[in-house]
Structure formats: C-alpha cells, structure tokens
Amino acid sequence: MISTLYIEHDIAEHPRAKAIAARFPQSRQVFIERYGDVFNQSAQNFRQQKQQPALILAKKYGKRVLPTPAGYHIGGQRNYYFSHMLNCVYDCRYCFLQGMYRSGNYVVFANFDDFFDDIRSTSEEDPTTPAWFFSGYDCDSLALNPITEFTNEALDQFATMPNARLELRTKSTQIRPLLKRDPVANVVVAYSLSPAAIAEAHEHKAPSLQKRIQALKDLQSAGWSVGLRFDPILYADNFKSLYAELIDQTLDALDVDAVHSVSLGPFRLPKPFYKRMIRLYPDSELLAQPMRTKTAMVSYPQETEQELLMFCENELLKRINKSQYFPCVSISNPVNLAESDTTKTNTSENNQSLHKLARRLEPQS
Amino acid sequence: MSLVCLITAMTAEARPLIESFNLKALPQKGLSAWVGEGVCLVQTGMGQQRAESRIDALLANQLGISAFINVGIAGGKRQLGDVIIASSVHDQLSGKTWYPHLPPSSVLSTANSSTISSTNFSDDSSEDAFADTFENEQASCAVDHCAVISVPEPCEHYRSDCVYDMEASAVINTTSKHTDLSRIQTVKVISDNPDNPLDDFSVKNVTPLMCNTLPLVTALVDWLSAESAARDVQDFRGQVNTLVTHITGLCHHSVTETHQLRRYLERFLALNGELPTLEQLGQLNSSQALLQRLNDELNNHAVNY
Ligand code: SF4
C-alpha cells in the first residue's frame, strides 16, 4: 500500500515513528528535513498521488489545537479541533482536502503526546466548562488507525481528562479497538452518512452506508456514544426519497434516544478549492452540477440548498429531539459564509490563506 | 498519443536508449531528438543551460509529451554500473530541492538491474557490449534510490548517500513547468567512484554502463504510459479542446467566452458521458446564444441516483 515513506530527521528516532515505519518493511525510506518540503512543493498532482500515496512521518510544531469555525458545535461552548494527520485514505469527490492540499500523500504527526498535552492544557484553561475536541478535520479519525494506533492512545488520554470531550469523526469501520474496551464516557464516535447510491458514486474507497450503519449499531450496543453527521447534503432530483430513506434506515437501526447528536451540513467550498478541484477532476459529475459562486464560496444555488436542508431537517425532527439536533448553518436563516467576517481572508492561493478558508468549513470525513 | 520523453546529455548515453526503443531521428535543425512508438528522446548536451534550452525547443514541437525520464551517468560511492532512481534532486547552485513522486515498488521490482564490473567495460565499447549486457540474464537486485545533486562542474566528493550529476536539476526545473512531479523521474548509473575517479573516465565506457539502466527505464516508460489518472484527464481535455477549437473556428468567441465554453463543454461531457453534437448546439452564429443554450442544458440536466 505504501511504497515510499518520507521521515523527518526530527521524528526518526521517536518510538511511534519507528513503530509505524516498521509496518512497512518493504517501503523505501527517504529522510527529509521538514514535511512541507515534500508535501507543499509545487508541481504536484493530488489526483495522481492519490493513486499511490506516500506516507510522511513528521513532527507537529506550533499550534496543535485550534478553535473550530464560529458556530460549529454539538452542544458545547468551547470547541477546538486538531489534526494529527493530513489527508485521508478515502477519496470523496466533494472533500475539500482535494482543493486545500497540493499533495495526496498522507502526513502523520507522530508526536501524539504533544497533541494530548495541548488538549489537556486547553481543557484545563476553564475547568468549569467542558471543552470539545474534534478529530477528523483534515483526515478520517479511524481509517488509518491500524497503522498509527492513534485511537487507543487518544481514548486512554481522554479517559483521564474529565473536562474534555472528544468527537472522532469517521466513515471507517475500524472500530475493533473501541469494541475491545469499555466505552469512554466523554467520547463520541460520529459517522458521516450519505444515501447509499450517493456514497457509492462519490465516496470512493469509503465503506458502504450499510457497513457504516452496522458499525454505529455495534458501537451503540457496546455502550459507546454515537453521533450522526449528514454532511454534506448533496443534490439529486430524487433527493427526497434518497434522504428520507437514509434517515429512516439509520435511525431504525439505532436507539434514537441514545444518539448523542445529529448534524446537517450543506455542500460548500471556498472558491480557490473548487477551482483546483475542477482542474483535477474536470470529469467529475458532482462538480459539473450547477453551482453558485458568491464572493469567496461555491455552493448549490440558494433555493436548491434551502430545499435540501429544510427537507432533511423536517425528516430528522420527526424522529429526533431538538436537543439532539445541530445544523451546521441556521436553516431558516442560512449563515452566508461568503459574507461573514471571515471574508477578510485573502483568497490568494498561498497555504496560509487556504488553511484559513478551510477553517470556515465543517470537519471532513 | 502521449509520449514519454527520455532526456540524456551525451550521445553515448542516448545510443542504447535509441536502439532499445527503436527511435528514429526527428528532422529538426539544431535539435538532436528521436521519436518512436510512445517514446521520444532528446539529447541536450552537457550542462544545465543546454538542458533547459533543448528541452524547451523539443516541447515547442507539440509532440504530446506527458512524462519525462532523465537518464544519465553520475558519480558516487557505489559500485560502477549501479543504477539508482532519484528520491530527490538538489540543485547545488540555487539550493532548490525537488522530490519526485516515486513509482510503486512493484514497478521497480520488475526492473532488476545487472551490474557491470569495472573489468568488463574498459575496452568494450559499442553495440556488442550493449547487446550482450541487455540480453544476458539480469542479476536480481532491487533498484536503489538516493538523492541526486546537480553540480555546475564535475566533482569528486563521493558520498554514499547521494550521487552527483550535472543536468538533473535543470531537467526537473524545466519539465516541472509542463507536468507534475510524478511524471518526471531521474535515473542515474554510476560511472565514477573513489576507485574509478573521473581521471580514468572514458566516454567509451558510457554506452555499456547505460545498458544497465534499460530495464528500469523500460519499466518506467511502461508505467508512465499506462498511468490512468493522468491519461484520463488528458483524454477528457483532448476531446473538449477539439470541439472548442472547432466551434471557435466557426463562431468567434472572446477569450473569456472561450474559457466559459470550455468549462460548459467539460461539464456537459462529465454529466452526459458524451459531448453535444453540432446539431444539438444549433446555429453557431452567436457566441452568447450558444453559451446560453449550453447553460440551459446544464441547468436542466437530470441528476438521479
Ligand atoms: S470527506 Fe472525509 S472520508 Fe471523505 S476523503 Fe475527505 S476526509 Fe476522507
């Protein structure tokens, strides 16, 4: 699976980096100074690299824990995200990572301990208010777990941080490490869900809807707290039947009252990401559909978006409590991201501004 | 038809490749280039500036080149005749480094190389040595990778973690303006080392040494030719561009309108699996009317799962 391993000199002797590297005895190893030398260089092709990604083992310096976009939460007042990994083993055609990164290679920041230290100190900044930490912003939280073993370590750590809450956002069915242990009360495993036919058409390499629902069921039966993320909602002429069926199918399989949270999100991309994505995938049906471009964001035409979101919201609220529901935009009065204060962001395609743009989106996966 | 372009500095480096790929000379004054089925070759001459100008001259021919392999000799603390693929290319003058996206291990494992000992190439130049070497059973050893450092002058500071050459950085610098780093590979064969320094080097030795690169170059050509993601996009764009050229030949479009037309046609092809026929497009006497018609079609396209 991984033919090339790039390893930063700074992390090469770290036991976790060594353990990960040892999983690929046949891979060629290339030692590098900083991951950005490979990951951010120009003249790369995300689509091409996605066919045969390399794995970059790096050390994360600087800010490891960041505030989530304004308004993004699942009931908490203090909300942060972290990315111990960049890029994803799956290949969803709507994923903003395709537009954000030049490279399709995976980066794993092997200094998990530094992430956990930062998470702990952030959560302790205000001991009276729980702090939520969202994993899976720039990757899928569980998909690469057999290689990184991130999940077990994260669960051990969060079990000792009563004031912290963790959301593991995923489409992966790599849930064995969770099922093997007792549930951790302050952890929610949240699945991104799309109608089966849409998942099959656009969520390449990701587990089928059936498998995701089964994973949710298994986790819930084992006592884990689960969340449902209907995000992004994609358009189809038959969207009503598709999403009604998806919502029923999912909720029928679960103890609905025990579901921690349900969220709903529209399909939106910063304009520079969208442009990059159509350069990479001019043949994508999804990206060929009518979109509206307003200031810095690309989305479905407003009427379409509203119709989609309102329908799904109504369907959901027939089955769940309002207290479980967290729309990613206010549906009756949609936040126009293009006109929010974040438009001050310079949209030129330097990395920093692309990252700022990405932070206006919901977590991926 | 897309071509993989081999790039060498010297005639002696080019010769085994020309023969192996059965290339024919491209009749163009001032350019030493050959072309064959799926492969072409340009011989640039020594040094960075020549490499850049000859590659640019070749690209001006619009042959449909979609990938590049720089093949040549290099010095290093390795066995004479050892073949490596570059995991990075560093330009000593500018300090710039490129990391090519390397092919899967499976590609390289099919490309075992044989090593010519220093005793069997000294006087044995030309085709015979080339043919013998290539046709003999290849010794089974995996292709190694390392950094290639491009220097402006020949250098004898041999190191085991890299090899030195004089063109690789110029080649990658020029070609990366045309394609991405997974479609530019660098293959080097060791021609001098501490036991066989540059003073002992003879151009006669180059051809037999270059034979060692043939299995790897062949495997890379096959891989680059078959690589589907790049080819799919190229074919897709090719279809659209042909129609754009046809339409804009019949009906004037401004630059902005041409861009819009191209994207509309891309979307049309993505959604329908085929481009519209000229009959479907109706009368081609107004660019605005045509764009409007296409836009309407796209907006009304059924999306069902
Ligand atoms: S949307 Fe999520 S699962 Fe899909 S490719 Fe992006 S990060 Fe991975």
Write a structural description.
The complex is a heterodimer of chains A (365) and B (305). With 365 residues, chain A is α/β, with parallel strands linked by helices. Chain A has helices at 15-22, 35-39, 46-51, 97-100, 112-124, 145-148, 150-159, 176-179, 196-202, 209-221, 239-253, 271-280, 285-288, 302-319, 351-358; strands at residues 4-8, 28-32, 55-58, 66-67, 78-82, 85-86, 91-92, 106-109, 131-135, 164-170, 187-192, 203-204, 225-233, 261-266, 268-270, 292-294, 297-299, 325-327. Chain A has a single domain (4-360), classed as pyruvate-formate lyase- activating enzyme. In chain A, β13 (225-233), α11 (239-253) and β14 form a beta-alpha-beta unit. Chain A starts with a strand and ends in a 7-residue tail after the last helix. Chain B is 40% helix and 20% strand. Chain B is elongated. Chain B has helices at 11-20, 48-59, 105-109, 126-135, 168-175, 206-211, 214-226, 228-250, 255-272, 278-281, 287-299, and strands spanning 3-8, 24-25, 32-35, 39-43, 65-76, 83-91, 97-98, 144-150, 162-165, 184-192. Chain B is built from eleven helices and ten strands. The model of chain B is unreliable at 113-141 (pLDDT under 50). The two termini of chain B are 35 Å apart. Chain B has 305 residues and is of the alpha/beta class. Classes of the chains: A alpha/beta (365), B alpha/beta (305). The complex binds iron/sulfur cluster. Iron/sulfur cluster is lined by residues 88, 90-92, 95, 97, 139-140, 171, 206, 364-365 of chain A.
Write down the CATH class of chain A: Alpha Beta
CATH superfamily membership of the largest domain in chain B: Nucleoside phosphorylase domain
User: What is the architecture of chain A at the second tier of CATH?
Assistant: Alpha-Beta Horseshoe
Number of strands of chain A: 18
